[in-house]
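## retry 2 of 3
previous attempt timed out at serialization; input unchanged, resubmitting
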Amino acid sequence: MGKWREIGNTTVAAMHIVLVRPTKILIIDRAEKNRAMYSDGRYAYSSEYDLTTGRSRTLNLKTNTFCSAGSFFGNGTLINSGGAENISGAQAGFQSVRLFNLCDDGSCDWLDFPSYLEIARWYNTMVTLPDGRVFNIGGSIKATGANDNLANNPTLSGSCTSTRRNP
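## retry succeeded, writing output
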């Protein structure tokens, strides 16, 4: 029987985590108090962790990703959308779209569009289609303890595709 042991520190709690390169993972947290901080004293909500070196790199994410969804475009760009209220220095994420274009040189960071979605999405779902487009589906239009007819958002956002290319 094996056992688990701590082997590193991502500096940001992992609400979402994805493998973005063979040895790198991207961590996304909701807006809360993490070890990672920006120079202006705000807490950081995203980091990139190198599985080989054990180093964490803080990423610049401005909107609250709590209750968000994510998927990958056909070209490898990560898209994340929706979220929650403004809290702990983060802007509201309900109508946000965030893009992370992968890179090998350590310069990549989030592109954050706080008001890009036409309608708010909280606990939405995203799916990559065979042609590389991504659909953004469902959720609620606001944070709620229990979904109802007033908050339910059973809509499908228009499909989209990234025009960005990997290096």
